[in-house]
Design a protein that fits this description.
Length: 625
């Protein structure tokens, strides 16, 4: 990519800001400076999740993990301005149109199969937003090129609803509710993306009131790594005394403007660290073993340290810290206390070193980029610990070396990422085909001797082609076309006795156009453009499991679930509303004696729990219905 840029062009590498004083770096490209540019680009990649190149008033953004283009278009004053396109890391078009001051303004949004799913006119429209990994993250109203009005946020890749409420100028403002699985963890008002006024209906064994007034109060909140914060808030931020739990108590101390200030950390109830923090990083203090002995000290974020797994209690890292994170030499261990990596780190991530598998076999030695194998010599094994590759990596891909059959000692030469192979990826899965750019490109995959896929691969996933899926005992379950890693195009589904269950067209793994059949071959529903009144039957006996509305190829609207046990088949178990395939809104749950056992609100396929208990027992935080 860099080699093709003419010498007259200017390349501007945007480094992530480590502090307010770090300036953008501009390098003029010519042959003498080529190596210097590559060094700068590599250093930049170690800090950020993307890199940006400006050329002739055109802007291009690349994802560093894949080196794939994620945006191309016009810019003004270092912002997207004018015509442009956004892509997923798999190269799928997400949005095409015009930008204004960095915001989408006029244009169309696309799904994975290049179908238009929304339009923006003058920054206004109903948007369905996917991230670069093609995961749904938001659905709602846009005004002035940003979230304004009602909207919903989803976690990924689970598609669980985590927020439902109002936005203003791209931030949560107004009424809203937040969810953790099926627990309602906040209901009230937001101001500038911060919880402001509201409360949770919680019973607890400490008589604590969980409530915010004008951003001040006591509350629980979900933070990174699904940890739970419980403590004081001020101006909508963690401020004052608080605790963090990852099932066990993980931290207790003081917070300032949303960040840890000073306190204590614990590992399964044992004190692990006492000291001060800077932007949530350990900065000054002492670390302890489970017997209370001091085993390390940190001064201004520097020192030799041991990190523990907070859930299982084992040492997961020991080595040097600079500026509050891994920098310098260190080692990593797994739950069985086996060494899995030793080498050097930069800004918290592996830089270069040796990686081992759980049997202490060296599997890679060389350079890393953002913690991933990048350049060097390595080996890869399958789940049965059988050698599949030995050789050199280039830019994260297998490049030169030997690919092994996986059963015997047959060797296939990999040359500059290319090879023709017959390789058992696992003991039951055989791949026959081509490697390109160090990974499977096209070929056939068989399981137990039966062909299950033939076509193209992308990022080691079945991507474009024809394939088959099978039931547990080997009977055919699906036969049809794949595109972009999912069922797309014509296909058939089968019951376990191999009778036809559905014939038609699929879109992104969803039935889109076609007819469904019962086990007698009778048509029981039709679906058009993903919409219809559907009946879902179980694969073995053909008993009714669901009937209701489909919109965009999944349960949306009113529907009913049925028991499919032998003595209860055909009996109603649930009736209510669905959203994106999951129970959402008001519904009724029925017992096996046809008795109504619950009537109320559902979220993420579960009963919404608005009133629950929080128990503090032996330094463990528990949610109970």
């Amino acid at each position: 990519m860099l080699e093709n840029i003419k010498s007259k062009n200017i390349i501007e590498l945007l480094f992530s800001y480590l502090d307010d004083n770090l300036k953008l770096k501009i390098v003029i490209y010519n042959k003498k400076l080529q190596s210097k540019i590559e060094i700068n680009l590599m250093n930049y990649k170690r800090f950020s999740k993307k890199y940006i190149i400006y050329e002739d008033n055109k802007l291009k953004e690349y994802d560093i993990y894949t080196n794939n283009l994620i945006f191309e278009g016009e810019y003004l004053n270092k912002e997207k301005y004018g015509k442009g396109k956004e892509y997923s890391i798999n190269g799928k078009l997400l949005f095409e149109g015009e930008y204004l001051n960095g915001k989408r303004w006029n244009g169309k949004g696309y799904d994975e199969d290049n179908n238009i799913i929304y339009e923006l006119k003058n920054g206004k429209g109903h948007v369905i937003e996917f991230n670069k990994n093609e995961n749904l993250i938001f659905e709602g109203e846009y005004i002035n090129g940003q979230k304004n009005g009602k909207g919903k946020e989803y976690s990924y890749p689970s598609k669980e609803l985590i927020f439902d409420g109002e936005y203003l100028n791209g931030k949560k403002n107004g009424k809203g509710r937040e969810f953790l699985k099926n627990f309602l963890i906040f209901e009230g008002e937001y101001l500038n993306d911060k919880k402001w006024n509201g409360k949770i209906n919680i019973e607890n064994n400490d008589n604590i009131i969980y409530e915010l007034k004008n951003g001040k109060g006591f509350l629980i909140d979900v933070i990174e790594n699904n940890s739970i914060y419980e403590g004081e808030f001020l101006n909508g931020l963690k401020n004052g005394k608080g605790k963090e739990y990852q099932y066990f108590l993980k931290f207790e101390g003081e917070y300032l403007y949303g960040h840890k200030l000073k306190g204590k950390e614990y590992v399964r109830g044992n004190l692990e660290f006492i000291g001060e923090y800077l932007y949530d990083k350990k900065w000054n203090g002492k670390g302890y073993d489970k017997n209370g002995k001091v085993i390390y000290e940190l001064n201004n974020g520097n020192g030799k340290i041991k990190e523990y797994d907070y859930t299982f209690g084992y040492i997961k890292f020991e080595g040097e810290y600079i500026n509050g994170e891994r920098n310098g030499k260190g080692k990593e261990y797994n739950i069985d206390h086996c060494l899995i990596f030793e080498g050097e780190y930069l800004n918290g991530k592996r830089l270069r070193g040796k990686q081992y598998n759980k049997k202490n076999i060296l599997i890679f030695e060389g350079e890393y980029l953002n913690g991933k194998k990048w350049n060097g010599k390595g080996k890869e094994y399958n789940r049965e610990n059988i050698l599949l590759f030995e050789g050199e990596y280039l830019n994260g891909k297998k490049w030169n070396g030997n690919l092994y059959n996986g059963v015997n000692n047959t060797i296939y030469k990999l040359n500059q990422g290319k090879a023709i192979v017959k390789q058992f990826i696992y003991y039951r899965e055989l791949f026959e085909g081509e490697y390109l750019n160090g990974e499977r490109y096209k070929g056939k995959v068989s399981e137990y001797g039966a062909l299950i896929f033939e076509g193209q691969f992308l990022n080691e996933k079945k991507w474009n082609g024809k394939g088959k899926e099978y039931h547990m005992l080997g009977q055919i379950k699906f036969e049809g076309e794949y595109k972009n890693g999912k069922k797309n195009g014509q296909g058939k589904e089968f019951f376990e006795d191999e009778k036809i269950k559905f014939i038609g067209e699929y879109l992104n793994d969803n039935k889109w156009n076609g007819k469904g059949y019962d086990k007698k071959g009778k048509v029981i529903y039709e679906i058009n453009n993903g919409n219809g009144i559907i009946k879902e039957l179980d694969d073995i006996y053909g008993w009714l499991r669901f009937e209701g509305e489909y919109i965009n190829g999944e349960k949306n609207g009113k529907g009913k679930d049925y028991y499919y046990k032998y003595d209860r088949q055909g009996k109603l178990s649930f009736e209510g509303k669905y959203l994106k395939g999951k129970r959402y809104g008001i519904g009724k749950d029925y017992g096996e004696r046809d008795n109504l056992i619950f009537e109320g609100e559902y979220i993420n396929d579960e009963k919404l729990i608005k009133k629950f208990k929080i128990l503090h027992v032996d330094n463990i935080l528990k949610f109970e219905k």
